[in-house]
Structures are given as C-alpha cells and as structure tokens.
Amino acid sequence: MQQSNAYIITFSVILTVILGLLLSGTSQVLGPLQREAEALDKKKQILGAVISGDEISAMSPEEVNAFYTSHIAATVVDINGQEVTEKDGAAVTAENVDIAKNYKMPAEDRLYPVFIYHAEGNPDAVESYILPLYGAGLWDAIWGYIALDTDMNTVGGITLAHAGETPGLGARITEAGVQQRYVGKEIFDESGALVAVEMQKGEGKDYSSDPHKVDGMSGATITGNGVNAMLKAYLGHYSAFIESKKSSQAVAAAF
Amino acid sequence: MSTETVEKAIEKKPAEALFSKRRKKLITDPLVDDNPITIQVLGICSALAVTTQMKPTLVMAISVIFVIVMSNLVISIMRNTIPTRVRIIVQLAVVATLVTLVSEVLRAFAYDMYKELSVFVGLIITNCIVMGRLEAFALGNKPYDSVLDGFGSALGYSWIILTVAFFRELWGSGSVFGIQVFEYISGIFGPDFKLATNGLMVSPVGAFIILGLIIWVQRTKTGYVEH
C-alpha cells in the first residue's frame, strides 16, 4: 500500500502543500520586519561611505535613523545632471529609487539618486556627495556607495556590498580594511579626464603615491575588476552632475 | 477485559526514564566518541567558513541545533508514513523548509548576521550531519529518542566550531566575542609590549590547522583509528 504510486503521489502533494503554506505564511508575517531591516541596512551603507563602520555599529537602529535624517539630504538627477522630481506622474525620492531595477534600463533612462551628507540639521553646509554604484562581480551583483568630497574629486570613503561573492576572497570587498584603501584617492587625472580608481591585481603592494590605484585582493581579481568597471561606469553616468557641482564651486571660489 | 490487560502490559514496557542511561548516551556519544566533525568528518565546509569570529559561529551553531532537532522530530513522527522510495526527497523538503524558516527569521531580526552568514545558513540544507542523522536514526526511532540524538549530534558540531572560532578569533583578531583581549593583555605589560595577531587564522587555512590539531589531540586521547 505504502509503496503504490498513488500513495507516493498523494503523500508528496500533501507534503508540498503543507510546507508551501508554512513558508509563504512565514514570509507574509515577517515581510514588513524584513523590509524595515533592509531599509535600515541601506541607510547604514550610505552612512558607511562617510563615517566609520565602528561608529555605525555602535548606534541603535533609532540612532541610525535619527542621524540619517539630520545629516542626509537627497536629490535625484538624470544622466544630464538635471534634477528629477517626478517620473511617469509619480513623485521620485532618492530613497525609493531602486538602483538594481534602474541598472537594467539603458544608462540614459536611469534615475540617479544623490545623497548629500551635510552638517547636522544644515543642508547648505555640504560635506560630501554620496553616489550609489551598481554592477557585476564574479558570481552576482555588487553595489555600493562612494562619497566624494566637495571638490568632486577626492574620495571621502566607499562602502561595497555583494550578493554572492566567494567568502574569504571576493566577499572581502565588504571589509573595512579593503574599503579604507579608497579613502583620499582621486577620480580625475591632472588633465581633468575621468580615470576613477582602479583596484590592481595582486595584494600587498603600496599604492599610496598613486592617487588612482588601490591595492588588490589576492584571489579575487575578477571581483576587483567588477568593482573597477562599476566605479568607472557610475562615475561616468554622474559626470554631468559632478561637472555642474564643480563649476558652481569654481564660481563660489571666484567670489 | 483481556485486551485491556494486554495493552497495559505493553504500556509498562516503554516506561523508560526520561534520561535513562541509553538516552544519555544518545546525547553524550556524539560529543566526543562519535563526534560528527572530528570522527565522522562531516559538516566541514561550514566549520571552516563561518568560524572566523565567535558571534556568527554561535548564531550558526544555534541554527544548526534548531534544524537538526526539528527535522529529526518531524521525520521521526512521519517515519511510518513516508514512502521508502521518496524518503530522501521528503527529508530534503523538510530540512529545506526548516532552513528557509531560520534564514527568514534571521533576515527579519538579525539582518547583519543574515548578511554575514549569507550562503552558509542556506547551506545547512546540505550539511551532511542533518541528512545523516535523519537516515541513520530518525527514520527508525521514536520521536523523543530522535530529538535527543539530533540534539547530541548538533551539540557535538557546535562545540567543535565554537572551539575553532575561539582560537581563530583570539589569534586572528585578538578578540573574543568582539572584546579586545590582546589589547588588554598588552596593556598589562606596559606600552612597549604588543601581542601580534596572525592573519593566517582569519583565512580558511587557519580553520584547517585548528581543526586538524583538535582532531589530533582528540584521537590521541581516545585512541580512535580509522578503519
């Protein structure tokens, strides 16, 4: 009886339905909490580009939210650096722009959020501009946020994250030690052309004298290449915005 | 009347103490003598990967304990209804469901841990210890015994990975559970004294070395020889 095909099929169907209900039920119940956790994590990543990871992990979720609200202003621009406030009749806010979804569109049609880090409660005292990044690593997507100082050239900090890089190799892009290598590097060369910052092959060399190179990750050259391509592509997409900020600063400096 | 007496006679027989000698053995055996990692050499993959620090290792250990105990319980309850021909798939479905539950809960309540452990929570599904206990024990034993057996095996796994993690974090990062031990010790001996950390311990190779040492010490003590 227990070995008959009919029994096996019935058994499998019932088991599948029960397990399926259990899983979808859990997903429904935990869904809101998970989205909250993800939103908080996104804020932490954005802040991670300008303040140290230790400081962030010492904050409670409420403190992170409060700090974010008092220090981050945001805007959305298009490929020409023009501010976008609505698209297809819906209001656009930087927090709601899904970088991953936009990544699938042609570069000209994408929305580009800009997060502006400013002195507490004073949006005019800008300290740095934080730009999102998105690209492909070795196995899966990689993304991050890069903070540019107000000269629009010096890297103030970077956070990198990944969906499925190899633990211990490519996954090391999330480590503070790796991200720290980018601080103080420059994205434009002397002639003003965009060269971004390139992670090199191999590890353990000193690139402190070269403003466009950082030490690589041993065993994770392809992930490093992905990071390089992502940086170059997104800084390119933001170049109109970067130029506009640069020239407005030049004007301000002239006065 | 007569059937009643027969039933009573049967009921009396399994009145085994809650923690009888045999049941205690179910828990204690996998701790040392039949340890899933050091003797059976199962579950090595996650033992190497998550053990750079104590905190994620503890979360991993708790997750594995939950999955093994619950899957042993569920499979043992269903053991007489599971068709033999599809038993592996059924076990896999139950284990996968439990692992997904753990993963979802972590994602909701401990998102940082969820990110750090990443694929390794999902990989509990393929942890040989889980399926091994289901095949070898839960399919042929009563639920309570199966729970004890699963708990024993999971504890055997847990104490080994926690030990590995303790030494890797101590020597690799100079801390235990994130508390800077090396800094504190260096402070005692004055400003010029500094305990150095070893980068090897942070890489998976470090786990191999520590695990190898644990297996060596243990087998020397118990006299276990592979056949």
Describe the protein in words.
Chain A: Composed of six subunits; NqrA, NqrB, NqrC, NqrD, NqrE and NqrF. Chain A: This is Na(+)-translocating NADH-quinone reductase subunit C. Chain A: Keywords: Cell inner membrane, Cell membrane, Flavoprotein, FMN, Ion transport, Membrane, NAD, Phosphoprotein, Sodium, Sodium transport, Translocase, Transmembrane, Transmembrane helix, Transport, Ubiquinone. Chain A: Belongs to the NqrC family. Chain A: It catalyses: a ubiquinone + n Na(+)(in) + NADH + H(+) = a ubiquinol + n Na(+)(out) + NAD(+). The complex is a heterodimer of chains A (255) and B (227). By secondary structure, chain A is an alpha+beta fold. Chain A contains seven helices and nine strands, in the order αααβββαββββαββαα. Chain A has one domain. In chain A, the strands form three sheets. Chain A has a five-stranded antiparallel beta sheet with strand order 1-4-5-6-7. A two-stranded antiparallel sheet of chain A has the order 2-3. Chain B has 227 residues and is an all-alpha fold. Chain B is 68% helix and 2% strand. Chain B is built from twelve helices and two strands. Chain B has a two-stranded antiparallel sheet. The N terminus of chain B is likely disordered.
